[in-house]
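Weekly structure sync, notes
Attendees: PL (lead), two postdocs, one rotation student
Agenda item 3: pending single-chain targets
PL asked that the sequence for the first pending target be pasted directly into the notes so everyone works from the same version. It is reproduced below exactly as submitted, 103 residues in total.
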Amino acid sequence: MTNKDPIFSMLGLCKKAGKLKSGAYSVEETVKSQKAALVIMASDASDRTKKSTRDMCTYYDAPLWEYGTKETLSAAIGQDNRVSVVITDRSFADELIKRLSKV
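Predicted structure, written out during the meeting:
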């Protein structure tokens, strides 16, 4: 995965547009309020984090994808130490899901 990865570029665009939230608390709050169009979690997240995020997304019917690492996910959105992000816009989420499906 390079800096030109279209998925990471799109995440940066989502962040600039104000349609992306990151950090455990923000992701959880958005999913539980049923405003999550897509959750993306780093593949190197801890097993406990993966399980709790999967369970929460399943319960609240939020799409979940594992992609990238903590480092690459954080760099894509210009934040430090991010394990997961949530997209709140359906159009962005649909395009990301289409691209993630091809990976």
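Discussion points:
- The radius of gyration is 12 Å.
- The first strand starts at residue 20 and ends at 22.
Action: rotation student to compare against the earlier draft before next sync.
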